[in-house]
Amino acid sequence: MASLRNVAAPYWAEFIGTLLLTLIGLGATTQSILSEQSSEALHSSVAWGVAVTLGIWVTEHVSGGHINPAITVARAIFSGFSLPKVIGYLVAQTLGAFAGAFLVWLNFVVPLSHIKHSSPGLHPATHAFITSNDTWPGLVNEISASFIFVIAVFAISDQMSNAKNIAPLALGLAFTGASLAVSSPLQLALNPARDFGPRVFAAFAYGWDVFSDHSFYFWVPIVGPFAGAILGAFVYEWL
């Protein structure tokens, strides 16, 4: 039994860590939308940074605190992370993000139901869960921000770094900085699971047009973070 627990623990950690990340981040995003705050960019960026910090703090000693499929893949390519674990981590992270979206919906279901849907097409409430942008600007944003963030991830976790002792906090600040610097956090994922898991939930809750929104934009927050993460890891490890 103990052996089974040890095998399963990293996957549960990635599930729970990504759930915390999504619950806190999406919760803040939802509150920004519902309250129509003028400072929603700052509010959401800081909240997502806190979410990253807590997600990593909870999981780093069990699973390494990836809580992001792009980080997992970059670690597998450049840091010797176990290839057989990659698929399990990606599934756990995506399911954790889905569960986090469900918990956010459960907390805000009443005010979200008051958002008027007066025209055909995408329900406005889905913006609490998904990212949305024009395809090419969005792709550039995702690659650029993920590139910045993953360089920070590899630098901060480097054994030679003085920041490794406060890695979760430092990475939360790095995420906030990348989000604020490049684009609105309501339009950035920097994490394929953070968008895809909640997008699947939003499809069940509000309709499957979340996948056709903005010319099938859903692939951008998947491909962009993977590309940016791999590029950032390459630059740090090889250049």
Automatic annotation (TrEMBL):
Pfam families: MIP. It comes from the Eukaryota. Keywords: Membrane, Transmembrane, Transmembrane helix, Transport. It comes from Coemansia brasiliensis. InterPro entries: Aquaporin-like, MIP, MIP/Aquaporin, MIP_CS. This is Aquaporin. The keyword Lipid biosynthesis does not apply. It is a multi-pass membrane protein. PANTHER family: AQUAPORIN OR AQUAGLYCEROPORIN RELATED (PTHR43829), AQUAPORIN-9 (PTHR43829:SF9). The keyword Transmembrane helix applies. GO terms for molecular function: glycerol channel activity.
